[in-house]
Amino acid sequence: MSEAIQPLPQEQPQEQPLGQEQEALTLLLLQDCRRMIDAGHRPVLGLNGPVGSGKSTLSRQLRQDFARAGLQLAVASIDDAYLPWAERRQRMAGNPFGVSRVPPGSHDPAALAEPLLCWREQPWRGDGRATAALDLPRFDKTLRDGEGDRTPNWHGQSDAVLLEGWLLGCRPVPEQELLAWSAAAGLEAPAQAWLQRSNQALLAYLQLWGTIDQLVMLWPSSWNLPRRWRFQAEARQRRSGGGWLRPERLDQLVQATLQSLPAPLYQRPLLQQARWVRELDARRRCRWQGPGGELVKRLDQSSSACSSATG
Which of 69, 75, 99, 227 is most solvent-facing, going by the fewest CB within 10 Å? Predict the structure, then answer.
């Protein structure tokens, strides 16, 4: 979370009927952003969710909702910070998934952190609005036969920024905890070595995570779902004539997200910090949403019930 502004008093959000999920989230984030802007702070929102969970779709919807409310919301992805092709291949050499992108270490987090900090430091307009010029990197996944590469930067005006990504906010885990989890999971030596390398690589992301003021999460009801979702998204892209990956390559990318930063170690701890979480069913529909701490209680209760049932 950002250290540039102290948390302001805020009304505790309540659970909403599922038919109102988008309106509830939009109103909450607009309220938060306006409060920060009134305090003289340009807000950065974070959106964490696994591959295929609908982060891009939700980002587009929020940008439209903010525009209707009179605020310009710029959207960036952690993917936009991928290293240039040659350097990325070198950094990812030897990974057990055979991928050239996705794991921690394949990005240049400063490529996003620096322009965000410059945007925040710009003088405020005379009318009190937060609008300021912003320059962000861009990345196109369809280039290089689906391996992707950098494209020209995006230039525009923005009152607020939404940053999305599957590893957004994830922080290094203490080594003893990492080793204990690896042993319990029965990881083989190559997978354990890569997990340790990914954990260490997260240190370079902390400056970028520090710009985030509020975190929203998309949480799958089962962590078996992201693979299915990603394959469904790729099939839609193929039918539309866009660039696509062969199934084996796609599976490598999905496994790279799930195994480089296992959800119990990295995503689960973020729930307690999340301003709002949307739990998704197998069809990516909202089955529940509310404060992150409430979902933690629900998950803990479910885990306790399962333990009691199995004796």
Answer: 69
> Among 52, 250, 33, which residue's Cα sits nearest to residue 131?
33
Token representation of residue 36: 């920060």
pLDDT tens track for 155-173: 999 999 999 999 999 999 9
CA 138 to chain centre: 16
* Concatenated DSSP letters of 147-192: T-EEEEEEEEEESEEEEEETTTT--PPPHHHHHHHHHHHT--HHHH
Output the six-digit token pair for 125.
Answer: 């307009």
Alpha-carbon gap, residue 101 to 1, rounded angstroms: 25
Collapsing DSSP states into helix, strand and coil, what is residue 214? strand
Assess contact for 293 and 273: CB atoms under 8 A. no
pTM: 0.89
- Which H or E run contains 200? helix 189-201
Tens digits of per-residue pLDDT, 171-196? 999 999 999 999 999 988 888 999 99
Q: What pLDDT, in 10s, does the model give residues 259-271?
A: 999 999 999 999 9
Burial bucket for residue 39 (CB in 10 Å: 0-12, 13-18, 19+): exposed
What pLDDT is attached to residue 241? Answer: 63
Identify the structural domains of the chain with CATH numbers, from first to last.
Answer: 18-306 (3.40.50.300)
pLDDT at residue 235, as a whole number:
73
Of the candidates 156, 120, 108, which has an alpha carbon nearest to the alpha carbon of residue 136?
156
